[in-house]
Amino acid sequence: MMTTEESLSVVVPANRMPGPAQGRWTYAQYATIPEDGYRYEVVSGVLYMAPSPSAEHQSIVVKIVVHLFSAIQAIKRGRVFVAPFDVVLADRHVVQPDVLVVLNEHSERITERCVLGAPDLVVEVASPATARHDLREKLDAYADAGVPEYWIIQPDSQTLELLVLEEGQYHSLGVFRDKATLPSRLIPEWDVQVGQFFL
Known about the structure:
Blueprint: E1 12-13, H1 27-30, E2 39-43, E3 46-50, H2 55-73, E4 78-82, E5 86-90, E6 93-95, E7 99-103, E8 114-116, E9 121-125, H3 131-135, H4 137-145, E10 149-154, E11 159-166, E12 169-177
Parallel strand pairs: 5-8, 9-10
Antiparallel strand pairs: 1-3, 2-3, 4-7, 5-6, 7-9, 10-11, 11-12
């Protein structure tokens, strides 16, 4: 029998999960959750449960990974990962970005089970189900952890917003679409047109 949380269409606190009170979840407690086919994250000690990604979401993620792999991993500048893969930003912040990059100079952050600390880039493919979570709770967690670059993709408008961390806060370098390329600081030579992610 499915519970309300199991049939969810938006990111919600996983209040029915056995464990500590909301606001008190840590990575150690999160790591004990059995595999059940759902996607969980901890932000500010609150355990969240997210719906399964759509086919369009998965298609966009694959295209981003292909291009990032060519720009980063294929030339041995770092590694590219795709969810589900835990990122432990802090003991009370455990997230699973859709795509993340860790450059070689931070390779010690990569373990067999997770990334411990801030990736160099996180990419989230927002949807009506996840946009609020991606643009509020997770944005704050990424900024607090010091993630230098954050890409937010909006499939409905076929846009990508590039955020860079400056003095502890994210600042937008713009919202890009169609034939535009990103002024990425992480990958300054990036020449992939944003529209290619939505073909």
